[in-house]
Amino acid sequence: MSTITIENLSKHFEQHPVLQDLNLTIPDGSFFTLLGPSGCGKTTLLRCIAGFNEPDCGRILFDQDDITHVPAHQRNIGMVFQDYALFPDKSVHDNVAYGLRARKVAPDEVRVRTAEALALVDLTSFASRLPAQLSGGQRQRVALARALVIKPRVLLMDEPLSNLDAKLRLSMRDMIRDLQRQARITTVFVTHDQEEALALSDQVAVMQSGGIAQMGAPDSLYALPETAYVADFVGSANLLEVEFMGPGQVTLAGQTLQVDTAAARSGERNQLVLRAETLELLPEDEPGPSNCLRVTLAGRQYLGARTLLRVALAGGLTLQVDAPGLQRYQTGQALCLRVPPSSRVICR
Amino acid sequence: MRRWRSLWPWGVLSALSLALLVLFVAYPMSVLTLNSLHDAQGRLSLAGFATVFGESQYLQAIGNTLLLGVTVTLSAMAVGVPLAYVIARFDFPLKSLVAILPVVTIIIPEVIVGQSWLMMLGNNGLISNFLRELGLPVPSFYGWSGMIFSMTLIYYTYIYLGTLAALRGFDGQLEEASLSLGASPLATRLRVLLPTVAPAILVNALVVFTLVVGNFALSSMLGGQIPLLSVMTYSLFVSEMGSSPMLQSSLSVVLVLIVALVLFVQKRVVERRMVQMVQGRAPAPRQVQNWQGKLLALAAVLLVTLSLVPLVAVVVGAFTRARGPVMHWGEWSTQSMERAFSLAPEPIFNSMLFAGVATLLGTSLALLVSYLVVKKKSGLSALLDYAVVLPLTISGTVLGIALVQSFNTAPLILTGTSAIMIIVYVVRRMPFGVRNASSVLYNLPNSVEEASISLGVSPLMSFFKVVLPVMKTSMLSAAILMWATSISELSASVVVYSGGLETLPISIFRLVDTGRLGLASAYGTVLVTLILVPVALAARFLKVNLFSGK
């Protein structure tokens, strides 16, 4: 268990910069997620921490130890790979015992600790199977047990859930989170799935072209995105260009709204972030609605628990609204869209 | 310091492998090329090439070689493609046997094929004599007819295997789509099936062409008076012994250039047209019903049987009473076998020793090289990737000549040692060994090794603990193929060997030349046994599919 500190890290592949002067501190025992689209550098950063990529410059520290040039096999890390990377010729038991044997742990202890690890991931009865005889979820659990059994300083996970189906992904999330809490092990988790990142993490770093766009706890990232990129990537958002009129006031498509303009700047491009589920649709003739936009309903997808609605502003802009239950409005109907005054304006 | 550490172990191993390939492939080839450009006085001269392209016997040899290559390639296609179609699309009794037996033709040594057909169809052959007694005219087997016949019956297998793989990977829905759009079954076969399979046929046809051009055993045993490049190069090598090697070198260079050109076309033009099927679901074979189908099935059975005649002939020959070139068919005797084992067993020991060592070294080196090329990409390993296919352009005769020219003087004298025999075997098999191992390595994700490293095992040890176990079966099948091809090798070893180093194929070749067919058959039987027993054992007990990667 260690604090991971990354200082001024840069990495090029051929002429192409992948990580650019990156600084980051991952607190001891926390679950830390690197979130971003493919090509943003998140996997490269993870592989630098693991020791599979050598950075061009900068340092990586586990607590006070500079491990920048320590070979991967001497870093004492546990890694879980996207494709599981189980040793195909070795049984489940031997896969899990592999790291212990490499550490010359006494055979009796190997047996005890391997059995414990397998019990932890609920695979005790599968110990003698070969990886090919397991389902995807079971393989991922073996990979998890194999990484944890060696009691590594840090646990690194590279999109471990992306090859599983949706239902399995949910239950694996719980298992990963529970195991991480129990072991209190510093964990770096790479994913492009924002929901996964929000559900699992203590801290999330949203990465953008080799750097960190914004870092914070899941709720603050979601509620207080600093840039359009983050707002769009962490939970989908309607991003609408608005005119900054003065403190707390913007106009959109000729209509005035009261919103949070703390981050707005006059003379620059200001965008209003509207989360689809914070918007409310009301009939147009409702008396005295405040902070409303006049819209028409353009389309509707009923999803059971909720309804996704597409509404159009005068001038052709459209917005997504995520409303609970069944919404009975008709396509083409004129409606009133209530915007919460806490909605933020950002200008990056 | 850090730079040096990053070179160990893979950088160092890449450099070492490359050095070996340079020493035993690139260097001999440059010596050969230089020799082709220098006359007896050591002056730079184009006289060698002037002779080759000026005198009619050499021009004839070039022409004949190309003609033979084209003819055998075409006839092998004419046999191999229909056979593949019948096997892929029809079911008939004995089909599974007929489908797999052609691969045996690849591992029967050519020298045995040549000898057996001579014993059947040669001047004094069993079948020739039988026909003569019936009063039928017997055309001479020596020359074009013998070479085309015997080579076709070996090389069709390459085209058959390639076409079969393509047909089995073919998405049957494409045919159904064509039929649904109103094309007739025949038009569908011509416009949809053929274009997708054609590149696979062509790639293998070009391989066959290069094999025919470089062929030595059958060309020299059955070619009669027809001048051919490989045979002529060999005779020049024998007659120029001790004098200037300019002419043999020039002919060798011509041979290499022909093969290199064909392989270049194959790589650059044909392989790019290979069609990748997204979801190959070949149509299920159907039971033959009408008489045409039955005839086709019968033809397939007969063809495969015919190509296995040499195997039977050599074993029967070994137990038949023989007097020089005269075989007393029907009179059984163990005399030849006894002679082989008691009076002259050296070729047996030599063959087993050389092929055994070559198998061990060759398989390990092929694994190492393919691992470096596939998993440890660097400038050096990219060079390795090129160096390792170089031997494909060098026919056995040429390789032998180049090695003799390079290693018969100080500082490194290898001519006349067992080492040069082993080197010949390893070099000739290297491209195939590397290709086999690479195909397995490409399917092994890098993350498996990284997982081992992350668990605390060093990169080098991870190779032994994780990569090697995964490769076990494919390494074993590669080793068996290496053993089978090495122990059959003739064209290069007959050039580099010297007294005391005779192997089984060399002995058989010389015995056939001097007309001692009994002992030749006995050696042949031992050779075939040494090849087929491991193959059969592996297939039976280890479920090794030797020819999955060819």
Explained architecture:
The complex is a heterodimer of chains A (348) and B (550). With 348 residues, chain A is of the alpha+beta class. Chain A has helices at residues 42-50, 92-102, 107-120, 136-148, 166-183, 194-200, 218-223, 228-233, and strands spanning 4-13, 16-26, 31-35, 57-62, 65-66, 77-80, 154-158, 186-191, 203-208, 211-216, 237-246, 249-252, 255-258, 270-275, 280-283, 292-302, 306-313, 318-324, 334-338, 344-346. Chain A folds into two domains: 4-223, P-loop containing nucleotide triphosphate hydrolases (Rossmann fold, 3-Layer(aba) Sandwich), CATH 3.40.50; 236-346, Nucleic acid-binding proteins (OB fold (Dihydrolipoamide Acetyltransferase, E2P)), CATH 2.40.50.140. Chain A is built from eight helices and 20 strands. In chain A, strands 6-7-8-3-9-10 form a six-stranded mixed beta sheet, sandwiched between helices. In chain A, helix 2 packs across helix 3. The longest helix of chain A has 18 residues, at 166-183. In chain A, 39% of the residues are buried. The model of chain A has no long low-confidence stretch (mean pLDDT 91). Chain B has two domains: 9-44 and 336-550, MetI-like (MetI-like fold), CATH 1.10.3720; 46-318, MetI-like (MetI-like fold). Chain B has 26 helices and four strands. In chain B, the strands form two sheets. Chain B has a two-stranded parallel sheet with strand order 1-2. A two-stranded antiparallel ribbon of chain B has the order 3-4. In chain B, strand 3 and strand 4 form a beta hairpin. In chain B, helix 3 packs across helix 4, helix 4 (56-89) runs parallel beside helix 9 (144-168) and helix 7 crosses helix 16 (309-318). The A-B interface holds A 50-52, 54, 69, 71-79, 81-83, 85-90, 98-99, 102-103, 143, 146-147, 150, 156 and B 2, 6, 445, 447-448, 450-459, 462, 465-466, 469-470, 472.
